[in-house]
């Protein structure tokens, strides 16, 4: 197990990208210090640790920073952590399924999430476009799930893998989209494979304590990003 202060994670509880690192650390049973960034501010440590992108998450291991969420997850998987010899691998051992996980993880970040980012604040035609963008990507992943999982509980098989983490970290914000627009995005009627997978994912011991409640995320959105309605004139 990592010594106190050996592993630090700069992030925010609302960030799906930060959640990726937290889930990976939990899978490996690694103790870490969580350094919460304030909304709208960037700490000196963050700017020093990630001077290129100046974004969370940043993992600090032995005072050395690692940036970008998927790179962090793979780094955590590759490090030999003491007393975690029996921890499951996050990436598949065979090159081909490993490549498939990386392909779809890149698709999620490059294509799927940008298509519906900001869905909680969107209205009218923009909201409809984002809902459709989210549904199109989920339909593709619904089709791929049986093939990638080989009929097992997760994309990674019997255990959570890279693709599970890449997609599952967004589940809280997917639910926010459902709440704000009263539309199902992941449900048993349209995406039965993903609906079952999502329930298993959020209940997993490595996930359940770091997955935000959608209602808390919605409140965070309202407090920090939704403009109050102007006072009505008499």
Q: How do the SSEs run, as a string of H and E?
A: EHEHEEHHHHHHH
Fraction in helix: 40-55%
Query: Which range does the strand content fall in?
Result: 5-15%
Number of strands: 4
How large, in whole angstroms, is the Cα Rg? 18 Å
What structural class should be given to the helix and strand makeup? alpha+beta
Tertiary shape? globular
Distance between the termini: 65 Å
Number of continuous helical runs: 9
- Poorly predicted runs are 229-234
Strand sequence of the main sheet, in spatial order?
Answer: 2-1-3-4
Roughly what is the average pLDDT, rounded to an integer? 93
Main sheet attributes: strand count, strand direction, barrel closure = 4 strands, mixed
């Amino acid at each position: 197990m990592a010594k106190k202060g050996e592993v630090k994670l700069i992030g925010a509880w609302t960030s799906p990208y930060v959640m990726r690192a937290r889930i990976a650390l939990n899978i490996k049973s690694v103790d870490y210090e969580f350094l919460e960034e304030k909304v709208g501010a960037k700490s000196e440590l963050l700017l020093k640790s990630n001077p290129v992108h100046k974004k969370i998450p940043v993992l600090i291991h032995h005072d050395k920073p690692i940036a970008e969420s998927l790179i962090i997850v793979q780094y955590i998987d590759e490090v030999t952590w003491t007393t975690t010899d029996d921890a499951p691998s996050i990436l598949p051992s065979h090159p081909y399924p490993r490549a498939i996980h990386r392909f779809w993880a890149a698709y999620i970040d490059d294509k799927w999430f940008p298509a519906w980012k900001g869905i909680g604040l969107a209205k009218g035609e923009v909201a409809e476009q984002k809902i459709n963008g989210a549904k199109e990507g989920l339909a593709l992943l619904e089709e791929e799930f049986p093939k990638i999982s080989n009929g097992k509980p997760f994309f990674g098989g019997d255990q959570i893998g890279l693709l599970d983490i890449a997609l599952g970290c967004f589940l809280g914000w997917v639910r926010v989209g459902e709440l704000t627009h009263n539309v199902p995005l992941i449900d048993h009627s349209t995406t039965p494979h993903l609906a079952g997978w999502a329930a298993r994912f959020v209940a997993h011991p490595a996930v359940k304590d770091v997955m935000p409640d959608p209602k808390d995320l919605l409140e965070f959105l309202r407090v920090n990003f939704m403009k109050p309605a102007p006072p009505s004139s008499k």
